[in-house]
Amino acid sequence: xxKIDEVRSKVETGKTKLVPGLVQEALDEGxxxxxxxxxxxxxxxxxxxxxxxxxxxVPEMLIAAKAMAKGVEVLKPYLSGETSVSLGTCVIxxxxxxxxxxxxxxVAMMIESAGFTMVDLGVDVPAEKFIQxxxxxxxVKLVACSGLLTTTMPAMKDTVEKLKGSGLAGFKVxxxxxPVTQAYAIEIGADAYAPDAGSAAVRAKGLVAAA
Amino acid sequence: MxxxxxxxxxxxxxGNPDRFVNQYEFLELIVFxxxxxxxxxxxxxxxxxxxxxxxxxxxxxxxxxxxxxEHKVLKxxxxxxxxxxxxxxxxxxxxxxxxxxxxxxxxxDDKFVTACQMPGVxxxxxxxxGMEDALMALYEEPDCMHGLIERVTDFELKRAAxxxxxxxxxxxxxxxxxxGQISTFISPxxxxxxxxxxxxxxxxxxxxxxxxxxxxxxxxxxxxxVPFMIEMGxxxxxxxxxxxxxxxxxxxxxxxxxxxxxxxxxxxxFPKWTPEICAxxxxxxCRSCGKHYFIPNLTQGLNFSSFPGVYExxxxxxxxxxxxxx
Lengths: 211, 326
Ligand code: B12
Description:
The complex is a heterodimer.
Chain A (H helix, E strand, L loop, with lengths): L2 H10 L6 H10 L4 H20 L5 H22 L9 E6 L7 H12 L3 E4 L6 H10 L3 E7 L6 H12 L7 E5 L5 H6 L4 E2 L3 H14 L1
Parallel strand pairs in A: 1-2, 1-3, 3-4, 4-5
Helix pairs in contact in A: 1-2, 1-3, 1-4, 2-4, 3-4, 3-9, 4-5, 5-9, 6-7
Chain B lengths: L3 H9 L14 E4 L13 E4 L5 E4 L7 E2 L14 H4 L9 H13 L6 E6 L3 H9 L1 H10 L1 H26 L3 E5 L12 H21 L4 E5 L8 H7 L3 E5 L5 H8 L4 E6 L1 H4 L6 H15 L4 E5 L11 H16 L1
Helix pairs in contact in B: 4-5, 4-6, 5-6, 6-7, 11-12
Bound molecules: cobalamin.
Cobalamin (B12) sits at the interface of chains A and B.
């Protein structure tokens, strides 16, 4: 098997200790850095699909994302010379009053592995902080808001309203979290909703491509 | 009319209940005993006996363990043996008096004196190091995790022995959330590898020591873990969310385990709740699950609601359904 294919399969199975070495070997074999990155992104999208379909669980997803991150560390010095491969910046956070972050972190990992530059604001994020992050970071194409409590759904609505009314432009707003539905997303004026981390990454790419 | 206890037993044995078991009515829950420390009001921060800090911010509906650098108990799983120190529990009569007083006041023919254990073994692992570290360690440091889980289990058994000695409970209400709303946190195989043996030990100990009824709380999806629940000796799974397709579980496993829940707290227990919403959810679940092996109940893991009135309203609606269906 070519080393680049091994990178792909070992990211998929979350072999955090093996991936860095394999990335180096793939480079030594002459694979292009961008192709190796592409292989890893491909692996993560397989991981995302398997998570969406219930074939794998949170630990498998975390470990795959960690394996990819370790691979990217090796790859970074080789990538920096090439033109930016980022699809844009995505600002993500859990809305004000809500401290759940497992789902949000999975979503962030998947969106990152799809090719976005992530700015993670953490949990309990007020609307103003989302707005500030859009101003402070370059090329923000997407704002992703997570909420797990029915009691913080009003905060999500408020956040979306303030983002849309901020006068800033060039970005789309995506929302999600267990109590959020497609219907609710539409009701509060968000641009997109996704039910899980795998489909969030797919949606994110679609939104930016359509913009 | 049957007593709450008789009616419960008829329900979970597939006998002749004369009404729906109404939520937690058959249990006298004893929560406050040495080994339980958790903030119960907004504005309170508590450090438990293991060193885990929980905070309950103003304006929130519950407490939360802190995992920033300053507060995380276990920063590196490989150090668990040195870092994770099982607490020494208070054995004084004063510390146990409140629990004993409740236990002594209960008519045990009517209700089950019920010991509460929270958090559970899985929850302990993520309270100590954060969910992500805990889940990844199952892959990266399985031996450490087995060791840590054993230590937590041993401590639980010690506390169980003290509780048995002091209040002779007839039932156990044991918390451990094993999933989110549409899937379990870990795969059934991984669950079996890491947690099944611990829980078999724990639940056997209680049963060997006078407990007739094991109620396990996990307000989540966990349908795929039901065979393990049966194997470890759970009599009632409390917190079963509608996403589990409870009617199907009853059909498949009803004679071996009963299901308590079916009214998802998130959908019913919120600031703008109404009696109509409660009624709708109660009616739907009572009609679809029927009279055996099922107890209609909010999925929340104690006998109250986040928003005042919801728990009581759900009880009223369950009584109405009893009148219609029995
Ligand atoms: C784990 C958990 C906790 C952990 C959180 C750890 C952490 N670091 O996040 C702890 C124990 C700390 C905790 C605390 C609390 N919790 Co809690 N918690 C849960 C639990 C069991 C699982 C949530 C979870 O992680 N699911 C797994 C992840 C992978 O799924 P997910 O979050 O849904 O995310 C996926 C999708 O929704 C989506 N997604 C998520 N975000 C986004 C964002 C975007 C943009 C997109 C596109 C998609 C997307 O993709 C994700 C991955 O596929 C749920 C119960 C349940 N059955 O869901 C309760 C639950 C959410 N908690 C609840 C409550 C009440 C609390 C507390 C207030 C009280 C308490 N002690 O229980 C405090 C919270 C304080 C606060 N202000 O936030 C309630 C909420 C009820 C309600 N009214 O809404 C629940 C439903 C349990 C219940 N009692 O019914 N909790």
